[in-house]
Design a protein that fits this description.
The protein has about 800 residues and is an alpha+beta fold. It contains 26 helices and 31 strands. The protein binds one RNA strand of 85 nucleotides through helix 7, strand 9, strand 13, helix 11 and strand 25.
Length: about 800
RNA sequence: GCGAGAGUGGUGAAAUUGGUAGACACGCCAGAUUUAGGAUCUGGUGCCUUCGGGUGUAAGGGUUCAAGUCCCUUCUCUCGCACCA
């Protein structure tokens, strides 16, 4: 596809990229004379420098923030706009396993390629602040933060069933495992994973669950992302209730969100793995129960959680006593009860819980209705007046002794108080959120700075950080649950940092890739500081991040982890705010031309380098913004890229005309001021597609003129500058101005010139447009009405009819209602 | 099933507070220019039409002088979660 370009974009773009780099045009420092409200921290999600290089999705978000930053600078803001690399990670290590190439070598090669590609798009980053998470000067502080977590009891070791991925040779966090039709799979690489009990480092993120939940309310984030985080945290409030075993040998504690349905609890169910199962099972049921437990153990998680299948379960032979009505209730086991949630046991209320209903129907257990649905709610009933399905809504209590008639919410509170008084239960809160499994059995990550000295664990002293990664012979995971580091004996064996003189062994697990990205936005503030992760004055100057732009795929993982670390840093006084990112925008994915996700196997991948060489960076930038709204998912369209390119080309050819001094004609001035207003408004709201459309309208107008007036041309260059910065710099210079256009003040519009002298007023009869009249702007409503009624054409439609009323909207329309 | 969001020309999409639906761009059509052009410029382009007009924003209903926009019902699609008691 040969481009039809004539304007020398390659020369222009190289020229100005070199200029910006040489002049450090976009370097920013902490100037105290700039008031807080004129400072902006605009952040991109930094990339993982993959071997494949940049794809067209990267420039989308980066262009959006770049346009916004350039716009802010021209409006007098000090703008912090940095870029870096999330450079620890599995692909480089897997490549090392295959080829023996050190991950450092691959990583740095990829970083150089990424940096070059990013620079070729003309983004206005302050490159002096670049960071890479694999750099020891960086991960020193990642390790430092880990030690702070450890000191505060937020990092602990535990043996627990964790997701283990054979192919990756490492454990994974819950968040990194996806449920697929083929069973649980790793989020990265789509490999099968399974649960294995292993000793792991775990971060106590659950301690922050409530704060992570509550503080979402104050954030200007997309509702969907907040909903996903809320959902992931999964807070539910209810009560823990103890049911005594009939034989008096103890009790079973359950968690319920509906303590108001306690009177309807007709049986209980334990998870097959529940500790009590073995003890309470009667001799008669023993064989059946053992077989079920064994079968449940062998089942994959997918089989266990398959909603479509019938409920299975086995009676243990034991009975418990319902504490409120002393009813004797059988105790069952079933794999629909998860041992890891709540207490691993439930009271079953089949009348008011769908799952319990299914189970009760399956096994012929009794169903007692204890909630009367509100009259206005339709509920299916059987012929004899009983419920035909579980009613899970709220209503009024029935069959509940003295509590009858209470509204659900009131009853919940009342019964919880009663249970507490009786010593039978208490208010309880549960979360779906689990603690964060933090260790990985891999090489290419931050070493965890701890030494095992016999039974005790001793942190590496802060002043000895960074604890550097040693070189290894083989990058292969040992497969025994240990990382390749375990084989580096001379690194592992070390003196105990406790000063005892005895020898210890280093922790050989490394941190997950998320660690480095949890705090990188802080390092940009003070990237060369070797005394602290960032100076407090710098943090106070810039933080929090005003705008954070990135893909929605990080909705839960990165954004939840980073918020957690930030809160810890807040608690230890390192940062000044509870939340790191005040405003978040997810750029929509750019799909292939076929409307499907770009992927190598589909062959629909567009390489930004090809677009840059064929059309130039300015065209790529503007085209990606012109495709549609930033947040929307949108298919690539090679055809319409020419529309944007043609626009820039026209701007170039316009500049070849002689610039004329003096006052431009009024009709041009009016379009100009409308354009300034629209582009200003839309750019500030990140509505770039409509701003570009307005720039096109203006160019089309200028093109029809014989002469090009400087006063009409220069403001256009300024409006263009954030969008097509290379071309704008060149045009600015050619217009006889010194560089750089990037620091010239944004043009202002005059309100009176944004309004036309004449407007078209629509005349409707009964809401249908029947005529249009040209009238001076702000014609009084009475005159509007008279003019409209006086129209011959309107008379045709109103003849012989009764005039009911006339509605006038100034400068817009007249609607004549007749009968 | 639950949660979030979206349905507008042949295509990507526009449309302050309800007030001319389809800006801008692609594509298509016509004209100009040109040795020629898939370059450039100008104009046209929702659909139907007996050229009066009719009709049109997923479907149906409602509120209103007036609905893409507000309300109700239904359908479709995308994303996320999914036996979380």
């Amino acid at each position: 596809m040969p481009p039809m370009s004539k304007y020398p974009f390659t020369d222009i773009e190289q020229k100005w990229q070199a200029y910006w780099e040489r002049e450090k045009t976009f370097r920013v420092t902490e100037d105290p004379s700039i008031p807080k409200e004129k400072r902006a921290y605009v952040l991109d999600m930094f990339p993982y420098p993959s071997a494949a290089g940049l794809h067209v999705g990267h420039p989308e978000g980066y262009t959006a923030t770049d346009i916004y930053c350039r716009y802010l600078r021209m409006n007098g803001y000090a703008v912090l706009h940095p870029m870096g690399f999330d450079s620890f990670g599995l692909p480089a290590e897997n490549y090392a396993i295959q080829t023996g190439t050190h991950p450092l070598e691959t990583t740095e090669r990829n970083i150089n390629r990424f940096r070059e590609q990013i620079k070729s798009l003309g983004f206005s980053y302050d490159w002096d602040r670049e960071v890479s998470t694999h750099d020891p000067d960086y991960y020193r502080w990642t390790q430092w933060i880990f030690l702070k977590l450890y000191e505060r009891g937020l990092a602990y070791v535990a043996e627990m069933p964790v997701w283990y991925c054979e192919a990756l040779g490492t454990v994974l966090a819950n968040e990194e495992v996806l449920t697929t039709p083929d069973g649980p799979r790793s989020e990265r690489g789509n490999h099968p994973v399974e649960r294995r009990p292993l000793r792991q480092w775990i971060l106590r993120i659950t301690e922050y669950a409530d704060r992570l939940l509550e503080d979402l309310d104050g954030l200007d984030w997309p509702e969907s992302i907040k909903a996903m985080q809320r959902n992931w945290i999964g807070r539910s409030e209810g009560a823990n209730v103890r049911f005594a075993l009939e034989d008096g040998s103890g009790d079973i504690e359950v968690f319920t969100t509906r303590p108001d349905t306690l009177f309807g609890a007709t049986y209980m169910v334990l998870a097959p793995e529940h500790a009590l199962v073995d003890r309470i099972t009667t001799a008669a049921q023993r064989a059946e129960v053992d077989a079920y437990v064994e079968q449940a153990r062998l089942k994959s998680d997918l089989e266990r959680t398959d909603l479509a299948k019938d409920k299975t379960g086995v009676f243990t032979g034991a009975y418990a006593i319902n504490p409120v009505n002393k009813a004797r209730v059988p105790v069952w086991i079933s794999d629909y009860i998860l041992v890891s949630y709540g207490t691993g046991a439930i009271m079953a209320v089949p009348a008011h819980d769908t799952r319990d209903w299914e189970f009760a129907v399956q096994f012929g257990l009794s169903i007692v209705q204890v909630v009367e649905p509100p009259a206005e709610v339709y509920v299916a009933h059987t012929e004899d007046g009983g419920l035909a399905e579980a009613f899970t809504g709220e209503g009024h209590a029935m069959n509940s002794g003295d509590f009858d008639g209470l509204q659900t919410a009131v009853f919940k509170q009342r019964i919880t108080e009663w249970l507490t008084e009786q010593g039978l239960g208490r208010k309880a809160v549960n979360y779906k959120l689990r603690d964060w499994i933090f260790s990985r059995q891999r090489y290419w990550g931050e070493p965890i700075p701890l030494v095992h000295c016999g039974e005790t664990i001793v942190p590496v002293p802060e002043e000895q950080l960074p604890l550097r990664l040693p070189d290894v012979q083989s990058y292969k995971p040992s497969g025994t649950g240990e990382s390749p580091l375990a084989k580096v004996e001379e690194w592992v064996v070390t003196g105990c940092p406790d000063g005892s003189g005895s020898m210890g062994r280093r922790e050989t697990n490394t941190m997950p890739q998320w660690a480095g990205s949890c705090w990188y936005y802080l390092r940009y503030l003070d990237p060369r500081n070797d005394r602290e992760l960032a100076g407090r004055d710098k943090i106070d100057y810039w933080m929090p991040v005003d705008l954070y732009v990135g893909g929605a795929e990080h909705a839960v993982l990165h954004l939840l982890y980073a918020r957690f670390w930030h809160k810890v840093l807040y608690d230890i006084g390192v940062v000044n705010t509870e939340e790191p990112f005040m405003r978040l925008i997810n750029q929509g994915m750019i799909l292939g031309e076929d409307g499907l996700r770009m992927s190598k196997s589909r062959g629909n991948v567009v390489n930004p380098d090809d677009v840059v060489s064929a059309y130039g960076a300015d065209t790529l930038r503007m085209f990606e913004m012109f495709l549609g709204p930033l947040e929307a998912e949108k298919p690539w369209s090679t055809g319409s890229i020419s529309g944007v390119h043609r626009f820039l080309d026209r701007a170039w050819r316009l500049a070849e005309r002689e610039l004329v001094e003096g006052e431009p004609p009024e009709h041009i001035l009016r379009v100009l001021h409308k354009t300034i207003k629209k582009v200003d408004h839309d750019t500030g709201r990140l509505e770039f597609n409509t701003a570009i459309a307005q720039l096109m309208i203006y160019i089309n107008e200028l093109y029809k003129e014989e002469t090009l007036f400087r006063a009409a041309w220069e403001p256009f260059i300024l409006l263009l500058a954030p969008y097509a910065p290379h071309l704008a710099e060149e045009l600015w210079e050619r217009a006889g101005n010194p560089p750089s256009v990037s620091m010239v003040a944004w043009p202002q519009w005059e309100e009176s010139l944004t309004r036309d002298e004449e407007v078209t007023v629509v005349v409707q009869v009964n809401g249908k447009v029947r005529a249009r009249i040209e009238l001076p702007t702000d014609t009084p409503e009475a005159e509007l009405r008279d003019r409209a009624l006086g129209l011959e054409r309107i008379a045709e439609f109103t003849a012989g009819k009764e005039l009911v009323k006339v509605i006038t909207v100034p400068n817009k329309l007249v609607n004549i209602v007749v009968r």
